[in-house]
Design goal:
This protein is mainly alpha-helical. The protein folds into 3 domains: about 190 residues, Growth Hormone, Chain: A (Up-down Bundle), CATH 1.20.1250.20; about 180 residues, MFS general substrate transporter like domains (Growth Hormone, Chain: A), CATH 1.20.1250.20; about 35 residues. The chain is built from 17 helices and no strands. It is globular and about 55 Å long.
Length: about 425
């Protein structure tokens, strides 16, 4: 007669099996590609949606601002969300929400409705951007090599594909039908990689994967966000003003459109090669060299009124800026986990939000070609900041902070001695030593 089994041994909690690194990387790439394709599809139908609701330039500008405002608001919360439920679950949910929100602009009938819908769309995309980058940071940690640049290449190629398809079907399908089809395809693509992303949430989080970096680490993350913002400023400037600048110097409509296409393709190819560049040269050299290359390209755009040369300048900007943002976000994630990704992304996204309006204000005063000098200036700032931020930036900031504390304490001791009442300042001498 068989012995009865010990029922206590049969009770266990089943945990998801962590996916292989290769499978996790492919799933993360798919998520980035969906994000890019959705955004590129939306960008290609903005004129048609604006015409459908009767929005002029000013009204459309205010409505589009809602995308950025929604993204900024949600980015500040996504770090804590990823730390609580896992970046995989947060990313899958955000991708589905982004696809669903994409279908809404084509269904709106008024400018206020469009503004509300775009606020929701922006909040969903902001959450997806942070969650996808947090996933990328985890893939890098598991792979023990640079990965995030190539993941951002997926976003760039997805954006190019979405914009190309959108332009091709613009005369065949209404925005409502087109965006609804893209949304459905995006949901299916997300669902196909969701099991891998959710299984990865079962692996232990990297050290420091907290929702809110503090102290010196927070300072480092903000510095990395500023570097990312310099990149986003240049990207927003070329996206919104590149075609107009080419038109002003005599480019045909086809060549004017080719400016953004060349910039985007250069950025996508640069990111595709980014993993190898970071592995061979290190992140500091890649960011510094890329930012200097972008500075040169922006100066060419600003100073040479020749269509062919300006097109080459846009390509240089795309190649130079390609890996700055992903490297900065990867370093922020390595320093402070999902919370660091959220904070750096929020700071960096302000460059994309404020860049085009600022460029327009400068262009109103000195001309659009001169305004592109601001792109060169901020790229140069990124090159300068890369050394302390990526070359031991946390140690540098800690040293500066300690020096400031000692200096403040010494000033307090001197003041106490001058006043002749050192008993009121116990401990200042100890702080100053």
């Amino acid at each position: 007669m068989p012995f009865p089994l010990d029922s206590a041994r049969l009770h266990f909690r089943r945990r998801p099996t962590p996916p292989p690194v290769r499978g996790h990387r492919i799933a993360a790439t798919a998520l980035f590609t969906v994000d890019g394709a959705v955004f590129g599809s939306w960008a290609s139908r903005i004129p048609d949606v604006a015409a459908g609701v009767g929005a002029g330039p000013t009204a459309l500008g205010l409505a589009l601002l809602c995308v950025s405002l929604g993204a900024l608001a949600s980015m500040q919360l996504t770090g804590a969300l990823c730390a609580r439920i896992g970046p995989g679950l947060a990313g899958v949910a955000a991708a589905i929400a982004t696809c669903a929100a994409l279908a809404l602009p084509g269904l709106t009938g008024s400018i206020p409705e469009l503004a509300v819908v775009l606020l929701v769309f922006g909040a969903a995309t902001g959450t997806l951007n942070v969650a996808a980058n947090a996933i990328g940071v985890r893939v890098e940690a598991a792979a023990h090599r640079p990965v995030l640049p190539s993941l951002h290449a997926g976003f760039s190629f997805g954006g190019l594909a979405g914009a190309a398809v959108g332009g091709a079907v613009a005369s065949l399908a209404s925005p409502a039908v087109h965006l609804l089809v893209v949304a459905a395809v995006g949901v299916l693509a997300t669902a196909s990689v969701a099991p891998v992303l959710l299984a990865a949430d079962g692996t232990p989080s990297p050290d420091g994967d907290t929702a809110a970096p503090r102290g010196t680490t927070r300072g480092l993350v903000v510095l990395l966000g500023v570097i990312a913002g310099c990149t986003a400023f240049g990207e927003g400037a070329v996206t919104d003003w590149g075609a107009l600048h080419l038109h002003e110097i005599g480019a045909t409509p086809v060549l004017a459109a080719a400016g953004y296409a060349g910039f985007s393709l250069a950025m996508a190819c640069g990111r595709l090669a980014g993993n190898g560049l970071v592995h061979a040269l290190g992140p500091t050299r890649v960011v510094t060299g890329g930012a200097i290359l972008a500075t040169a390209g922006a100066l060419v755009v600003a100073t040479v009124p020749d269509v062919a040369i300006v097109l080459a300048g846009f390509v240089l900007i795309g190649l130079g800026l390609a890996n700055v943002f992903p490297i900065a976000i990867a370093r922020a994630g390595a320093a402070a986990g999902a919370g660091g990704v959220a904070l750096a992304s929020t700071v960096g996204y302000t460059g994309l939000l404020g860049g085009p309006p600022l460029l327009g204000i400068v262009a109103e005063s000195v001309g659009l070609h001169v305004a592109f000098v601001t792109v060169a200036a901020l790229a140069a700032v990124a090159a300068v900041l890369a050394v302390p931020a990526l070359g031991g930036g946390e140690r540098v900031l800690a040293g500066v902070s300690a020096a400031l504390r000692r200096h403040t304490a010494q000033l307090g001791v001197l003041h106490a001695q001058t006043a002749g009442d050192r008993r009121m300042y116990p401990g200042l001498e100890a702080l100053a030593t």
